[in-house]
Amino acid sequence: MPGTVTHSAPGKLFIAGEYAVLEPGQPAIVIAVDRYVTVEASTPETGDVVLATDLLTREVHLQRTRTGLRPTDPADIEHLTGALAHLVSVVETVDRLRAELALAPLPVRLTVRSTLHETGVKIGLGSSGAVTVATVAALADFYTLSLTPELRFRLAMLAGIRVDAGASGGDLAASTWGGWLSYQAPDRTLLLHSLKREGVLGTLYATWPGLAVRGLRPPTTLALHIGWCGKPASTSAHIVRLNRTGLRSTPSFGRFLEASHSCVTTAIHALQDDSPDTLLSAVHKARTLLAGLDADTQLGIFTSRLNDLCAAAQACGGAGKPSGAGGGDCGIAFLPHTVPAHTLHTRWQTAGITPLALQATATVHPSAESASLAGPDPAPGPGSVRLLDQGRSR
């Protein structure tokens, strides 16, 4: 039987491009941060599939059926669409891949531990994405499936969209490659159709229109500060509310997409050129765009504390904005290195905002196999490392 394997995946924060990144091919900047989800895969003492997570007080036993995983205890059925939804989807997706490879299922126990919280509360660091990526990596090694980083990302994306087809996958990219990334999402609707027609294996190697991932150079003269505003927010709930407004099919949203594309592109060039003033201007512009979207949709992207977070950053000579969907969890600020951190943090703490001691992780460069699968870089920019750019299929 396979031995025990353990994999960790970092959390994420969006720097720019929120909401626009939901559209295929729209760019965003996302970073991986040094808080982690760790998944251990091992052989269970009894049973088929056993899931243990710090989100639940006891482990859940599941059995494989023709229609997917089912709990041996009917009382656990609610967890399959709740706390365990992403874990279950990864197991089912990997099971389907193994079946397509004519490999029999094996019993497995997955144990999940997370530090993507503050005093037991999720703080908007992409825990679902980190769980998905870490579980894919752990299961792949447990089952001795040799997957490149790109294939792990793609498999994580296929598992993720089975749970939430609206998610961009930026968190999955950050958790897979780490560091600073520019990210453009694939067309998830097409991926779901491909899953039904071509299966997991066929979809893994298909063309994914819109998808691109590149490593970026972090700023050298600006410091990134992260503040927790005390209110957990649901990205998926914000996306559902945005869809219900009907705004995504209007000319107004088209203008938002154009402005966001320009803003994110400017920020990417600022990072490549190490231009702090240009980056601060782009971050301020990103904040303004989110404020305009919030006014149009009444999504509640900005809260009073997020406004205070941004105002404090500006008062200290920097720029701040919500990170991710907004609604009260994390915000970010960039300040010149010459400004002492306590200058900003004292203002935040006075406003009820908790500074978080987080750092961006290092970028994991692609393997030769991953680079080959992705194809040559048509236009590499200075200071960027091309990780994935969907220009052809295998």
UniProtKB/TrEMBL annotation:
GO biological process: isoprenoid biosynthetic process
EC annotation from Swiss-Prot or TrEMBL: 2.7.4.2
Pfam families: GHMP_kinases_C, GHMP_kinases_N
Tagged with keyword RNA-binding: no
Superkingdom of the organism of origin: Bacteria
Disordered: region residues: 367-394
SUPFAM superfamilies (alphabetical): GHMP Kinase, C-terminal domain, Ribosomal protein S5 domain 2-like
Residue ranges of every copy of the GHMP kinase N-terminal domain listed in the record: 90-179
Pathway: Isoprenoid biosynthesis; isopentenyl diphosphate biosynthesis via mevalonate pathway; isopentenyl diphosphate from (R)-mevalonate: step 1/3
GO molecular function: ATP binding; mevalonate kinase activity; phosphomevalonate kinase activity
Coiled-coil stretches noted in the UniProt entry, renumbered to this chain: none
This protein's UniProt keywords: ATP-binding, Cytoplasm, Kinase, Lipid biosynthesis, Lipid metabolism, Magnesium, Nucleotide-binding, Transferase
InterPro entries (UniProt xref): GHMP_kinase_C_dom, GHMP_kinase_C_sf, GHMP_kinase_N_dom, Mev_gal_kin, Pmev_kinase_bact, Ribosomal_Su5_D2-typ_SF, Ribsml_uS5_D2-typ_fold_subgr
Domain GHMP kinase C-terminal span(s) in chain numbering: 293-350
Cellular component, GO annotation: cytoplasm
Keyword tRNA processing in annotation: no
Name assigned to this protein: Phosphomevalonate kinase
Organism of this sequence: Streptomyces sp. NBC_00049
Lineage: Bacteria, Bacillati, Actinomycetota, Actinomycetes, Kitasatosporales
